[in-house]
Specification:
Layout lengths: L8 E5 L3 H13 L3 E5 L2 H10 L4 E5 L7 H10 L7 E5 L4 H9 L4 E4 L4 H21 L2 E4 L2 E4 L4 E4 L2 E3 L3 H11 L5 E2 L1 H9 L9 H13 L8 E4 L3 E4 L3
Parallel strand pairs: 1-2, 1-3, 3-4, 4-5
Antiparallel strand pairs: 6-7, 7-8, 8-9, 10-12, 11-12
Length: 233
């Protein structure tokens, strides 16, 4: 048994029963564990509640297309799991569209099982290397490199102070959650009492101005009476 295969979990999102059966049987014969979802919404649900090493994603799916699933996995669920798209739509335009939605690789149908296994292992090794070497946080078009202390929006570098960096890091680690001013004070300023000032509002305003100087839409939103939330609208 290849030691790299042992314990590796694959999520296969594929609606064609014959194709799904072929891939599942072939990969299980190579000692992978394979979970199958037969439509886009089910694939999203499974990915949100279970941990996988690689996701195999068809493009033409019921409910949501593979492109839509890929986009939601990256932007809403914030998953960094490697995604390999499997499809007969192998034109350059479709390949680019998939990669732009967050896919890591593209394999055109029909394909040989040996090539699929090789692609899976290559993606897994590359992902593991990235996890070790470059801790990054990603939300929408924002990227934070925690080692280099660098922030990019749509590929453009944003200069932040140390406090602004910590504030954005706290937001990006808690996407879609309403964060109260007190929670922000506790995690960013490391105080557990009300300073009696509007320091949080001031720094959120600083951060917004820098993030929105040449890019839109707004990502940090005010929730009246509750605090702030990082979300894409």
């Amino acid at each position: 048994m290849n030691a790299l295969h042992k314990g590796m979990r694959i999520l296969l999102i594929e609606d064609e029963a014959s194709v799904a059966g072929f891939i599942k049987k072939g990969l299980e014969g190579q000692h992978f564990e394979v979970v199958v979802a037969t439509d886009g919404p089910k694939g999203l649900e499974v990915a949100a509640h279970e941990v996988f090493d690689v996701i195999l994603l068809d493009v033409i799916l019921p409910g949501l297309s593979g492109w839509e699933v890929c986009s939601q996995l990256r932007q809403q669920l914030q998953l960094t799991t490697p995604i390999l798209m499997l499809t007969a739509l192998s034109s350059t335009e479709n390949v680019i569209k998939g990669l732009n939605q967050g896919a890591d690789d593209y394999l055109a149908k029909p394909f040989k099982l040996e090539e699929l296994v090789a692609r899976i292992l290559a993606l897994y090794r590359r992902h593991q290397g990235l996890l070790v070497k470059t801790p990054r946080l990603i939300f929408a078009d924002l990227e934070m490199d925690l080692d280099a202390r660098e922030v990019l929006r749509a590929g453009e570098k944003i200069q932040l102070t140390a406090r602004e960096f910590r504030l954005l890091e706290y937001f990006i680690k808690n996407p879609g959650k309403v964060l109260s001013r007190m929670q922000i004070m506790q995690h960013v300023w490391e105080v557990d009492f009300d300073l009696g000032t509007n320091v949080v509002d001031v720094y959120v305003n600083y951060l917004r101005k820098k993030m929105e100087k040449s890019h839109w839409p707004r990502l940090i939103h005010t929730v009246v009476g509750a605090g702030y939330i990082l979300r894409q609208e």
